[in-house]
Amino acid sequence: MEPQVIEGDGVRLRPYRDSDLADIAAGCADPLTQRFLGGLPHPYTEADARWWLTEGDPATWARGGAAYAIADPESDRLLGAVGLDRVVALRDQAEIGYWVAPWARGRGVASAATRALTAHALASGFVRLELLTQPENAASQRVALAAGYRHEGVRRAASRHADGDRRDLLAWVRLAGDPDGPAPRPLPDLPADGLGDGVVRLRMVGPDDVDVMYRLHSLPEVVANRVPPEPPGRADIARRCQLAESNWLLGTGADLLVVDAASGEVGGGLALRYDEPVTGQAMFGASMLPEWRGRGLLTRGVRLLAGWAFDTAGIARLWAGTRPENVSAQWVLEKVGFRPEGVQRGRLPGPDGTRVDSAIYGMLPEDLL
């Protein structure tokens, strides 16, 4: 590939200029950029930016890759960077990467630049492009999906950071033969204000929900259905909250909170696990804090999520499992439309090496009450 100007949707990809030096330094010194690009010098100074302009950029092109400044088409100010590196000529493969300056975020700059360079690279002879993101970097995963990249797996401990820590990376891939447009998603986003019926509202779990999630998942009746049936560690719950959006984007599951519409307080939680995408089946879980029980809020939440799963996500069948003695959970399920389907003997591991039964409930779209 040769350096040239590439016009995108609201962005321009162009070669770097000496006048970009201050903006490169400011963008790469930004805490968010530093957090997700662990290989950057820290602190990042204008001397580092000058090295990039004089040595890093030319070396990338010499390796068969590409390095572009993302610029505003009107002002020509640098908005970020996008490029190709780690070229494997034998496979016609390269890795695409990007960063966006703080003054340009929230405008779709990364998605537009990634789409533009992806199209140019595939038209130039590349057959396979990889995009790697940290699991907690949901914003970057949205960029990958918007540019048509599909999740391929996990690169364990593939990222080395300045502190010596090694972290996993999610691999997203775009092939030359893939259709244009965004990649398909098994679980679409909720409406911007969540799901609601005027009494309760459902919203996605986020990094700030550790306290309530830890309390919910430490309840004895919830712990009894964990595998193994042991109380969770707070660090495990914090990680679950941190990765909730990523899991949603991957389509593996959705963690939500049941919020009282009047007070805004969290009363319970719901979980949807897309355990059989090939058959359109997902598993359902629900829990409520003791002081919120008996008000019908959990029933409303289950009904809202089940309706969204059938009507918006296109899921064909929901199922849930409870302990046979958990009559209150079964009552909630049946009130919404789940039907008892039998008992799976010894399905779950119990305490001290025992096995416990699980009462199975299922629901089809026409069963929803």
From TrEMBL:
Q: Where is the N-acetyltransferase domain?
A: 11-176, 200-367
Q: Which organism is it from?
A: Micromonospora cathayae
In its UniProt entry, what is this protein called? GNAT family N-acetyltransferase
Instruction: List the CDD domains.
Output: NAT_SF (cd04301)
| Domain of life, source organism | Bacteria
Q: By its UniProt entry, which PANTHER family does this protein fall under?
A: ACETYLTRANSFERASE, RIBOSOMAL-PROTEIN-SERINE ACETYLTRANSFERASE
Query: What SUPFAM superfamilies does the record tag this protein with?
Result: Acyl-CoA N-acyltransferases (Nat) (SSF55729)
